Structures are given as C-alpha cells and as structure tokens.
C-alpha cells in the first residue's frame, strides 16, 4: 500500500517537472521582447553621400535578420540586409549584438529631391509572429536636397586697397540660409537687403587686411539649410599699399608711469623687470584686447545704422597713422615690433569726443591697452572704436547720433600723452579710417552700390 502511494507521488512529480520544463521551453521560445535598434546619425537633410551606423541587439533568442530600406513615394528599395544562423537545441540565434555601417548616396540611388523615409527592420529568433520573430521597425524621415543655392554679384567695379574696405551687392536663391564673402580664410557675413523676384538680395562689407601678403582670393559664398555650398568669384581689383615705419624709444620713466594702470592685468611677480612687464602688455594684452574687439562684431545690427561720411575728431593733429609699423627701442636695443591699427588724433587735453556716426554703443568700459574705450556699432559689421579716454559719457546699449558727445580724450591705457586712438572695424577686421572719413570714397565705393538695394 505504502509502495503504491509512493509511486503515484513520484509519477505526479515527474508530470509536474515535465509540464514545468515545457512551460519554460515555451516561454523561452515564444519570448516577446523585440530587438533593440539604434541608427546614427539622424539628419534632417540629405545633401550628398552619407555614412550611417546601425547598432542592433536582442538579449533573449538572439538576432535573426535585419533590413535597411528606403521609401520615396511608392518606390521602395533595400539598401542592406543580413541573416544570422540559428543553433543549439532551441534553434535560437547565436548573435546577440551586431554593428554595421552603410552609405546612402542620393545621386547613385537616383533619389528625387524632397521627402524620403529610411526604414530599419530587425527580427529576433522568437517563435512569435507566426514563427517570423518579434520585429522592431525604426523610421526616419529626411529631405533629399542636393542642389546648391545660386549666387551672383549684382554690383560692379570693386576696387579695394590693402588695409581698406569694400562692399558687394549680390543675389542668392531664396533657399540660402547663410551667405557672405571670403577674403582668403576670413569670412564676412552678408545681410539681407530685399527680395528680387523670388531671389534674395544681400549686401556685404568686407576688408582686405593690412597684412595681406599676396593677392588675396575673394569669393562670394552661400549655404542652404541642407548644407549645400555654392562659391563663386566676382570682379575686383586690389590696390597695393605701403605703410610707414615708426620708431618708439622706451624710457624707464615712461614705463614706470604706465605700470600702475596695468597692475590689475598682468600676472607677473615682483622679480620681473619693468621692461618684461611692458613687453607682456604690448604683446599678450594687446592680442587679448584685439580679440575682444573682434568678437564684438557678433553684436552688430543687421540693419544699416550709419549715414554719410564718418566724422573725424575736430581740430586735431594726426600723431600716428593706420598701419604704422612701430619698432620699440629700449636703451638703444630693439625689443619689440607692433602695427598701429588705428589713427592717433591729438588736440588739447580732455577734448570732447563725438560719435563718428549714428549707431548703438556696444562697449563702454576699461579695455586693457586701449584704456577707457567706447565701441559704436554702425550696423552690418561696421564699428568705430575710441580709446585712451579720460571719461566715458555713454553706456553699453545706448543709441547715439552722429556728433553726440560720448566722452573726453585722455591717456588711459598704453598711451604716451593725451590723444584719441580712433579705429574702424569691418566684420571684426581693422581697416583704414581715412576711407570712411572721405565723402568721395564713400560716394564711389559704397553709395553707388547701395543704390542697387535702395
Ligand atoms: Zn593709437
């Protein structure tokens, strides 16, 4: 009796174990976790041949197959696909993770301009889905745009001096989102002026830097939202210009008078000599200050704020010119060289300084070697700089009119006496102020071109 009962219990346990095993076998085979899929990058536009990376994985039954296809309208084509073999008692996949790269070339695939869909499908070795496995579908919409914007100059006769400024009026197709002028590696952004039968007309002020060594290459450039780039030439003539040499004698007395002002700027220790401190100010601090001024171009107004020739400080003598190459001597030995990139104008001490044209103050503070300085933005990349002031009468953000008093001359910063250091920047590049003071130069080089957009 006891033996029979024992056997039936054993039979029941065996049945339960078998049922348990099949239940486990069934859950494993019919797992419902779909594979994971990552596709990179996911650009909004496709402007040319581009490489994509797919990363697929399946933790449970493993990867069965994948397919990358594109769909445009009712056309669908497979770009790349792959199958993984199954193995073992469960006939499951041996590959759980897979990475692959593929290239999508809209030209080679003869894709039409406009919307397209990129599909990535991945299946695993689960017995679900009628035995096909769990499927993951990743869809990414892109716009095929492989046509660069059009660009052409509308203005003629661009005569630019080395160290001088130029203006070009040009037209782009309406899809251009960014455009301007390249002078060798320097980019000058253009500004939208008006529409012209579906096209966009722009103006762009540019400069040929004073230290340009040979004939610079000047081109018009545009880019559309998809990243297609167009670059084209236009007619121009570069006038060579030579700059003066100047000699500066540094006396101990001059350096001693300067240093207290710079105490807050130089990272030196007391063991360094005064001439070493001076050289740091004249080189490192100068570079830093010029970079600050260069970066101010980002604050420029997209509208033209100025009108007519810029004002030249009244009744002043020209103490130093634009582009003067200065050699510095200390105790008879040449210790430094720098270029003077503004004009020094002197009259009586503490003379009132006028805004050279209409604009908006974008800087009004201490600025290293330039002492108390004011920068006025005149719009579209044109800015005037006033240095060594003893007093500032304006604040950053303030609008000024031509002739408004913005401060008084002085000798703050790196200055050997009371004067105004006046400089002009076009797109963050120093240019010769003489051109902008000259009615005739403005008439011939700027106004005749602006007439095309006004
Ligand atoms: Zn100066």
Tell me about this structure.
- The structure is a single chain.
- This protein is of the alpha+beta class and 454 residues long.
- The chain folds into three domains: 32-144, Sandwich (Immunoglobulin-like), CATH 2.60.40; 151-239, Sandwich (Immunoglobulin-like); 245-431, Glucose Permease (Domain IIA) (Distorted Sandwich), CATH 2.70.70.10.
- Helices cover 17% and strands 44% of the residues.
- The protein has helices at 2-29, 252-262, 274-295, 433-437, 439-450; strands at 36-40, 45-46, 50-57, 63-72, 75-83, 86-87, 92-93, 97-104, 114-124, 135-144, 151-153, 158-161, 165-172, 176-183, 186-189, 191-196, 199-207, 218-224, 229-233, 236-239, 245-250, 317-320, 324-330, 333-340, 343-346, 352-354, 359-366, 372-379, 382-389, 391-392, 399-400, 405-408, 420-426, 429-431.
- Helix 2 (252-262) crosses helix 3 (274-295).
- The longest helix is centred in the N-terminal third of the chain and has 28 residues, at 2-29.
- It is elongated, with a radius of gyration of 36 Å.
- It starts with a helix and ends with a helix.
- The model has no long low-confidence stretch (mean pLDDT 93).
- It binds zinc ion (ZN).
- Zinc ion binds at residues 320, 340, 342, 344, 421.
Beta-strand content bin: 35-45%
CATH architecture of the largest domain: Distorted Sandwich
CATH superfamily of the largest domain: Glucose Permease (Domain IIA)
What is the averaged pLDDT score?
Answer: 93
List the ligand species. zinc ion
Gyration radius over CA: 36 Å
Molecular shape: elongated
**Total number of strands:** 34
Topology-level CATH name of the largest domain: Glucose Permease (Domain IIA)
Return the CATH class of the largest domain: Mainly Beta
Number of separate domains: 3
| Tally of individual helices | 5
């Amino acid at each position: 009796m006891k033996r029979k009962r024992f056997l039936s219990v054993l039979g029941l346990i065996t049945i339960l174990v078998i049922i348990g095993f099949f239940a486990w076998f069934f859950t494993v085979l019919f797992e419902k976790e779909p594979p994971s899929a990552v596709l990179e990058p996911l650009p909004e536009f496709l402007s040319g041949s581009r490489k994509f990376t797919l990363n697929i994985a399946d933790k449970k039954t493993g990867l069965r197959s994948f397919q990358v296809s594109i769909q445009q309208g009712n056309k669908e084509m497979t770009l790349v696909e792959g199958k993984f073999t199954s193995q073992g008692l469960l006939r499951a996949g041996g590959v759980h993770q897979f990475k692959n790269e593929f290239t999508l070339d809209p030209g080679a695939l003869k894709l039409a301009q406009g919307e397209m869909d990129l599909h990535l499908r991945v299946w695993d070795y689960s017995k679900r889905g009628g035995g096909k496995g769990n499927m993951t579908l990743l869809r990414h919409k892109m716009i095929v745009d492989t046509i660069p914007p059009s660009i052409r100059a509308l203005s003629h006769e661009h005569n630019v001096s080395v160290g001088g400024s130029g203006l070009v009026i040009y037209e782009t197709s309406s899809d251009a989102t960014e455009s301007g002028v390249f002078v060798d590696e320097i980019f000058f952004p253009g500004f939208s002026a008006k529409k012209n039968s579906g096209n966009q007309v722009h103006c762009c002020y540019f400069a040929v830097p004073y230290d340009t060594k040979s004939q610079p290459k000047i081109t018009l450039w545009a880019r559309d939202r998809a990243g297609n780039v167009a670059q084209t030439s236009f007619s121009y003539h570069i006038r060579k210009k030579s700059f003066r040499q100047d000699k500066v004698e540094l006396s101990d007395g001059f350096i001693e008078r300067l240093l207290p002002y710079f105490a807050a700027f130089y990272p030196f220790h007391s063991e360094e000599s005064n001439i070493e401190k001076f050289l740091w100010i004249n080189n490192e601090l100068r570079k830093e200050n010029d970079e600050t001024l260069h970066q101010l171009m980002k604050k420029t107004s997209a509208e033209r704020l100025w009108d007519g020739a810029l004002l030249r400080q009244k009744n002043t003598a020209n103490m130093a010119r634009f582009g003067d190459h200065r050699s510095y001597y200390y105790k008879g030995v040449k210790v430094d060289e720098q270029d003077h990139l503004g004009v020094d104008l002197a009259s009586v001490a503490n003379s009132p300084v006028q805004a050279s044209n209409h604009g908006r103050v974008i800087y009004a503070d201490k600025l290293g070697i330039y002492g108390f300085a004011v920068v006025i933005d005149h719009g579209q990349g044109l800015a005037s700089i006033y240095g060594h002031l003893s007093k500032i009468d304006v604040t950053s953000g303030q609008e000024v009119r031509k002739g408004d008093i913005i401060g008084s001359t002085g000798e703050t910063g790196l200055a050997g006496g009371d004067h105004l250091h006046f400089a002009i920047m076009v797109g963050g590049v120093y240019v010769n102020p003489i051109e902008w003071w000259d009615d005739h130069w403005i008439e011939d080089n700027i106004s005749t071109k602006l007439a095309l957009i006004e």
